[in-house]
Amino acid sequence: MSRSEAVGERADRSLWRDGNFLTLWSGQALAQLGSQVAELAIPVLAVLLLGASELEVGFLNAAGVAAFLVVGLPAGAWIDRMRKRRVMIWADAVRAVALGVVPLLWWAGLLEMWHLYAVALVVGVATVFFDVSYQSIIPSLVRPGQIAEANGKLQATYELANIGGPAVGGWLVGLVAAPFAILAPVGTYVASFVALLLTRDHEEPRAADDRGPILQEIAEGLRWVFGNRLLRRIVTTTAVFNLSSTLSFTLLPIFLLRELGLSPAAMGVIFSLGAIGGFAGAVATPHIVRRIGEARAIPVSAIAFSVVACLLPLAAALPSVAFPLLVAQGFVASFTVLLYNITQVTFRQRITPSRLLGRMNASIRFCVWGVMPIAALAAGVLGTWLGVVPTMWIGAVGQVVSALFVVIGPFWALRELPDAAA
After folding, report:
1. pTM of the prediction?
2. Fewer CB within 10 A of the end CB, N or C, for the chain?
3. Is 347:233 a contact under the CB 8 Å cutoff?
4. Ranges of each domain in the chain
5. In the CATH hierarchy, which fold is given to the domain comprising 17-198+210-414?
6. In angstroms, what CA-CA distances link 150 with 42, 141, 363?
7. Torsion of CA 405, 410, 412, 416, to 10 degrees
8. Cα 69 to Cα 242: distance, rounded to the nearest angstrom
9. How far is 295 from 235, CA to CA, in rounded Å?
10. pLDDT tens digits for range 116-165
């Protein structure tokens, strides 16, 4: 068989028959499930077992995402010089070890808040390297025409983890206590580690003579992102949305557990029922994009997920219907965020040269995640000063404002997003 025939055969093959992609996908499915358990268990541990205040919860949340602000940009330049799969392998190993320390400290009676801050920081740094590599490796695993399908499958898995993870996390927290529930994500990170060892990619490392000074390469990545008029608007909407939503979600454990008096298990059920919308959104995205156009899916989804953000603080004023309001908010937000993310991630992967993928993703993550530690600290301060519910209203209004950058723009007229940089 000739090389062209082999390529053609691979091009016609569904990802469901691509064992290499399925290996990566299965590992990530387990890792995402474990990550959702950790996201529930750690704040519950802090609030219920260590008596964390609003400010301490703000510090904890900030510690988990601070790495995107501190090392996000240089990480992209470094990753563009490395084999991305190997970076992901090391990141999984670091996350498993760091989280494994928490139940050991609790069992020894030594666990304190500063330990959680330290673990969150270490896991956050590893996650920066993992996530930037993860979003950059897809083009080296599948053909260009399969990138959207691959992203859709990975996002669907993420939402399935959102559905099952919080419920499993709530059940584990109730059964074995929050510190030992963290052993679940430790195991899933190990599973992801093994799956990545078995995955093969066709990435070619950049030649040494194609590398410049780190600062110069960072600047090149930023220029690529902000020199594109469509990416610039997408990044601004996402950054303002993340800034505002972090104000709300940093205080969500206190809001649900103390203000509304819910149990950790009920909190997990709310997250799981709401996340069903995300799975539905991942499945529906190809059909919606075909019907209204790839470009128009961006502002449509932004309007929906920003407006429903107001249901979250509204639940405090309507306690009798708080549960269905929170489920509805989570469902619609998850559905439309998935529509938005699959569409814009596929677009930016498609138009970016392979040599810039790491820096493109790192530049965007620096902007859209780098605001989150700032917002988390602000949430702790505002929650202490104004109260939990007023702070969540500030976050909701900010999320509505975030949609304007893509709603007022060229997306309505384009229908389809371009295949090359604009």
Report:
1. 0.72
2. N
3. no
4. 17-198+210-414
5. Growth Hormone; Chain: A; (1.20.1250)
6. 31, 9, 22
7. -120
8. 13
9. 15
10. 999 999 998 998 888 778 767 777 777 777 777 787 777 667 656 655 66
